Amino acid sequence: xxxxxxxxxxxxxxxxxxxxxxxxxxxxxxxxxxxxxxxxxxxxxxxxxxxxxxxxxxxxxxxxxxxxxxxxxxxxxxxxxxxxxxxxxxxxxxxxxxxxxxxxxxxxxxxxxxxxxxxxxxxxxxxxxxxxxxxxxxxxxxxxxxxxxxxxxxxxxxxxxxxxxxxxxxxxxxxxxxxxxxxxxxxxxxxxxxxxxxxxxxxxxxxxxxxxxxxxxxxxxxxxxxxxxxxxxxxxxxxxxxxxxxxxxxxxxxxxxxxxxxxxxxxxxxxxxxxxxxxxxxxxxxxxxxxxxxxxxxxxxxxxxxxxxxxxxxxxxxxxxxxxxxxxxxxxxxxxxxxxxxxxxxxxxxxxxxxxxxxxxxxxxxxxxxxxxxxxxxxxxxxxxxxxxxxxxxxxxxxxxxxxxx
Length: 406
Description:
Blueprint: H1 2-40, H2 42-46, H3 48-56, H4 67-77, H5 81-85, H6 92-109, H7 112-149, H8 152-161, E1 172-174, E2 178-183, E3 188-196, H9 199-202, E4 237-241, H10 252-257, E5 264-268, H11 269-272, H12 275-288, E6 292-300, E7 304-305, E8 311-312, E9 317-318, E10 323-324, E11 328-336, E12 348-355, E13 369-370, H13 372-379
Antiparallel strand pairs: 1-2, 2-3, 3-6, 4-5, 6-11, 7-8, 9-10, 11-12, 12-13
């Protein structure tokens, strides 16, 4: 009998200790996970106020109150509905009288279980506050770090690539040798701009001889807006590069940047290995004969006639992430050449629009030339509109396909 009197309370105390320990551990693990997501996921970080509101559902948040006063207010909240939405008495004297005359009596009338759950709600309140403070510190640290990262060198680097301006300003992503404007709705780029350097065509980094087996995501884009390799499997389209990795065989970092999803679009296999490859090769050859070449590349969604008077834009999507498949692609080339005195003359511009389909291999590149203003109309972009000169006698012969498909 005496043995049972010892065992039963001991088991009860052990159970309570295990329950409390499990609750604390679970709370700690949840805090770590939420903190990790907030730090790593930019979308959650920007929407952190929603997380705070979700945590507040488990407790009553009262600003500018200490811990004891909050605990006392929670106990009194059950006796008066108005007290839940009210605040503490304004004067300190009223607060002392109010707490001293009523709280002690109410605490005695509550059971240990009710007081324990009130303590849990209080812990949840402190938990919400700690997350808020931690995220605020991380935000301040990130803002300070971003300010330090924006240096004169970075500004000069961006200005070197974007010499002829930004066609659009939707979610700009800066890479080492090209700039991307990303379209979250379609999960592909609006446009990609690159400045081609002849020096990079002569040198080859041995690391770039082997291309990556898969495309990689960019941490700057929330996961819900980024495609995955699963979207490209069992599909009629393959991944195409807006900025060709063959333009950066001399630099492994830039080569890997070209394999990130913001630079990848669904393209027909027949187009990628023929006309599009020849067009990329033509741009590289143009870089050898020019002082500088700037290339804007992007997708187009062209309308199709449905009836005599009506038009509609129809395109496919791939995978669970609904990655949009463009109907066409465009390239806008801005080339600079030096005059007899060695000065950079006015640039000339060329525009190309290519259907995203398997085309005849014998077609000339000249047949895909179009007006820059037509590309602007359908792409919703605005390219360089300064003074340019006409380029005559450009060779559009079939270029050698020494570059393998990427």
